[in-house]
Amino acid sequence: MAEFEVPVLSIKNLNKQFGSGCPRCQDGESPSFVKNYCPICGTVYACRDVSFDVFPGEVLGIVGESGSGKSTLMQCLYFDQEVTAGEAYLADYHNGEKNLFQESSQQQRYIRNNIMGKVYQNPLLGLKMNFSSIGNIAEKLIAAGNQHVGMMENRGTELLNKVNIPVHRRKEAPKNFSGGMQQRVQIAKALSNRPPLLLLDEVTTGLDLSVQASVLDLIKSLQRELNISIVLVSHDLGVIRMLADRTLVMLEGRVIEQGLTDQILEDPQHPYTQQLVHSLL
Amino acid sequence: METLLEIKDLSKSFDLHNLGKHIRAVSNVDIQIKEGEFVGITGKSGSGKSTILKCIYGTYRIQQGSIWYHSKKFGPINLAEATERELLYLRKHEIGYVSQFLNVMPRTTARQLVKQAILEMGDDHDLAEKETEKILAHFELDEELWDSYPTTFSGGEKLRLNIARAMVKKPRLLLLDEPTASLDHDSKLKVKLLIEQLMKEGTTMLGIFHDLEFMNHLCNQEYNMQNGIFSHSTSFTNS
Question: pLDDT averaged over chain A?
Answer without folding.
Answer: 91
